[in-house]
Amino acid sequence: MTRIPKIFALLAFLMAAGCRDSYPSVVPPLDILYFPVGMTVRQMPADKTVEARKYGWSQLVVLNSNFDLRYDERTGGSLLVIDPDLSGEATTGGQLAVLGSARVASFGGELAMADGRCEYLWPDCPSYCSTIAQEKEIKDGGAKLVFASRSSNVIYRMSMAGDGSISCNGTCSFTLPITVLDPYGVSMVCSERSGIKVAHAYVSQLMSANNLGYLSKLSLVDDKTGIQPLVLGADSTYTSVFDRVNDRLFVSSAISINPQFRWFNPLVTASDVDGFLVPDYAGTFFSSFLTGAVARDMALSTDGKRLYVSVLLYDLTLAIQTGILYTQGGAVASFDLEQNVLGEPSMALMGVARTCLGAGQIRRLPVRYGMPDLFAVSCDLEGALAIFDSESHTVVRYVGHDPTTGLPVLGRYPFGLAVEPINPLRATRNGPTSTYPDSPCVDRIACTRIYVGSFLDNWINVLELDPDWPGEAVVVKRIGRGP
Question: What pTM was estimated for this model as a whole?
């Protein structure tokens, strides 16, 4: 039997850790990485006063999980805002350029951000939320950050200023109403299409009472509403993604045999049943789309016509006979979202491409005008990254193990992903004495960056590629260090 994906081993570890009488009272330094999980990034306008920022710069936000509880359970996690260009090389002990930080509870999961603008190089940036753009802190260049602590059953909503500093404007943490939940995945829903300004975060629950499919809904601006629990039938939820084109929230399930796959319109008022919101959701067993597969993370095409799902492949016959999922690999499955006569997405399977082993994340790379979408897929168990071409349904770049050392190039258990386009004038130039090559973007007209966090080695890989030549993607830098 293969290893259980890391994110679910977290749960087993947490249950065992819950038997302890006490936790260490040590708090972590706020300039290190320590089992990083969630990541997101946004671009900032050029700052002519700083040489490294004169062609624009980035704020990379990282959530550290304190997975082994080396630090205090209640305050041992941390949220860091980093300037990746000003951060030193990890392998030589370079320091992170930390712009802002906050101590939070341990066992963090996914991380989502909402702000009020996209820089000119990234017109389709996923953090843009028009419905909060006129909020004062957002107009001043700030952003909202939402994430959860799995061990404390708390959802955080924090504010990030334009300089990267972190603060609490109002209520920062919201305690879940049911103690047996396990909050993990986060998606943002921002829309004015219903005639009402909607700005909410939806947080999935890997564990729930009676194996019901719970989601937690949290306003990005309202402190009074608090957490609103939603129920979507059977099977715990893994994560979700919002389709801005068709106003649908797609929800995958936690690992189980033959789990459900669901979707609903989050702009439509849900029914209230005994204090729980029950949306008019649709869906079916994921095996009806693809036999022997479990849906994990998801991403949408630029035009909103396709849904790309990172899937875990398993032997269905053995699973039915033994009740155990024997992992056989990973893949990306693409589905057609064209509406059928009932107004629902057809969910026709358009293709499946093998990637690598693991239940990591999937992120669509920034738009390539006139060219098909590219997707980055992390595979924690295999220690690899795959870049998937949506037109050819093939992996066009694979970053795996070093042929000399046999070790994963990206470090052990690469999981968290963040992507952005950058000005090619920011492309990394390492020089002849460096162990890293120069960026393939040097002297090109476009450049894309991929950030990949190594969960066990406590560093973040920085890869760069010319979007016209994704097969040339290389690691140009590693930033961060552990304790």
Answer: 0.93
